[in-house]
Amino acid sequence: MSQKNEQWGSRWGFIMAAVGMAIGTGNIWRFPRVAAQNGGGPFIIAWTIALFVWAIPLLMGEMVMGRKTGLGTIGAFRDFAGKKYTWMGTWVAVVCLGIMFYYSVVMGWCIKYFTLAISGTFKPGMDTVATEAIWDTFTTTPSQTILFHFIAMIIAGLIIYRGVTKGIEKASKIMIPTLFILLVLAAIRAITLPGAAQGLEYLFNPDLSMLTDHNIWIQAFTQAAWSTGAGWGFIITYAVYTKQKEDIGGNCLIMGFGDHLGALVAGMTVLPAIFALSSTQQFAEEAMAQGNTGITFVYLSQLFTEMPLGNLIAAIFFGAMALAALSSLLPMIEVGVRNLMDMGIERKKATIYIAVAGFILGVPSAYSLHFMDNQDWVWSIGLLVSGLFVAFALIKFGLEKVRKEVINLEGADFKIGKWWSVFVGLFPVFFVVITGWWLYQSTTWYPDTWWHPFEKESFGTVIFQFTIVIAAALALNNWLANKVGKGRDITKGITKVK
Predict the structure, then answer these.
(1) Is the pLDDT of residue 1 over 50?
(2) Rounded distance, CA 289 to CA 76, Å?
(3) How far apart are CA 432 and CA 79, in angstroms?
């Protein structure tokens, strides 16, 4: 099969790959902590609303762009928004690859901890001092962190090398059901522990008065944007391989709900385990305040040692983490590969180029947690900019035209109403509020050096790195627009629905 004609073998295969794209480590280690710290039940309500207001509309928009143009992010923006906006597609690709460089490091951590669990490292009686020492020793040993980063890139690269049907689709059909099974097994064990009910109460706290807290809404939209893959360019890329009559609305709703379900099951694993096995509520709350890496690799590692068959449960949990990371790493690589293929480079060569670049440019994050945290901060905000650019392209093309003539195809399982056009039209407002809040927060963290380009999470480092990427993308705009091959005729194959 030629690179221009690659296609998903089935709708099920595409959905599994897309759900895998959405479910990543952010669902497993970030969602439980953020939900617990922001009211539990009220946060879940706000997060579900954000799913419909931001994430699902954006996923639909990305699927429209990829399917209509038949090109990766660079070509999709060229053909859908106009040649002079090609640079926006370059931005989307660069942000996605920027995350890929350190995300493979995170997958390497999960693989490492899976091996620690199956080798019996987590022994009964260990305290958090001991598990923190394991974490500190590992993350300050570059030979180990770089090795497992390399292993992660090799695994993901080999799958992408095999192509869409034999690689991504085949792997996703195995990985995603396995991931859900592992999460459900871990959740069942966690909620059957004595004292687990307190964790469930924390997660599903019914105090709806907390919905008046603006911070809960900001955090809910941020989580929805991060975890679903909306704005990453994933679905623009995956949609290239879909059939022309594929149901856009139905598929994107399934992706969104699949992501939600994965996060809720993870929450029902992590929070009950923390509360059931913590000696005091203060210890549990201290665990949740430790950030993503602390709660996962320090506190949960210690808590697993207090369970019967703790190493087995730890192996299941970290195995699920590794699968979740892999299912999200695959589309990150594919975004880069697809763009190179659009420029005439065949898949196998393109995969080697992206995988090698991913390994080399990921080494700084493997070497330094400080550098990695900086990249996570910068490109997380970059994702919101990517979402804004997708919304701009859709608005420019015509939101109602897209909804009526592209999304609501004849025979579609779900007909999407005007709410889609309204919410996409409001994206600039959402962007200003969420991004403005994030950047304002950074000025309070560094009141005297908020402008400094080399502070870990400053306003200055965001502007500095954004400026470099945008300047380069603008400078290369016309060259890239001409380099990318011809896509589909976006004026053809449209079915109007009255």
Answers:
(1) no
(2) 41
(3) 27
The tokens describing 259, both together, are 């992501």
Predicted confidence band at 444 (pLDDT cuts at 50, 70, 90)? Answer: confident
Q: Tell me the CA distances in angstroms from 370 to 169, 190, 255, 299, 374, one per residue in order.
A: 35, 32, 33, 21, 6
**Which are the contacts of 205, defined by CB distance < 8 A and separation ≥ 6?**
39, 40, 41, 42
Tens digit of each residue's pLDDT (9 = 90 or more) over 269-325? 888 888 888 878 788 777 777 776 778 888 888 888 888 888 888 899 899 889 988
* Gap between the Cα atoms of 4 and 69, Å rounded: 12
CATH code reported for the domain at 11-483: 1.20.1740.10
Residue 260 near residue 267, CB atoms below 8 Å: no
In the predicted structure, residue 414 carries a pLDDT above the cut 90: no
Residue 442 reports pLDDT greater than 90: no
Please write down the HEC assignment for all residues of the chain. CCCCCCCCCCHHHHHHHHHHHHCCHHHHHHHHHHHHHCCCHHHHHHHHHHHHHHHHHHHHHHHHHHHHHCCCHHHHHHHHHCHHHHHHHHHHHHHHHHHHHHHHHHHHHHHHHHHHHHCCCCCCCCCHHHHHHHHHHHHCCHHHHHHHHHHHHHHHHHHHHCCHHHHHHHHHHHHHHHHHHHHHHHHHHHHCCCCCHHHHHHHCCCCHHHHHCHHHHHHHHHHHHHHHCCCCCHHHHHHCCCCCCCCHHHHHHHHHHHHHHHHHHHHHHHHHHHHHHCCCHHHHHHHHCCHHHHHHHHHHHHHHCCCCCHHHHHHHHHHHHHHHHHHHHHHHHHHHHHHHHHCCCCHHHHHHHHHHHHHHHHHHHHHCHHHHHHHHHHHHHHHHHHHHHHHHHHHHHCHHHHHHHHHCCCCCCCCCCCHHHHHHHCHHHHHHHHHHHHHHHHHHHCCCCCCCCCCCCCHHHHHHHHHHHHHHHHHCHHHHHHHCCCCCCCCCCCCCCC
How many residues belong to the chain?
498
**Mean pLDDT, residues 256-268 taken together:** 89
Provide φ and ψ at 482, rounded to 5°.
-80, -25
Residue 232 makes CB contacts below 8 A (sequence gap 6+) with 21, 92, 95, 96, 99, 331, 332, 335, 383, 386
Q: Are 339 and 346 in contact (CB under 8 A)?
A: no
**Given pLDDT bands bounded at 50, 70 and 90, which one contains residue 493?**
low
pLDDT of 106 above 60: yes
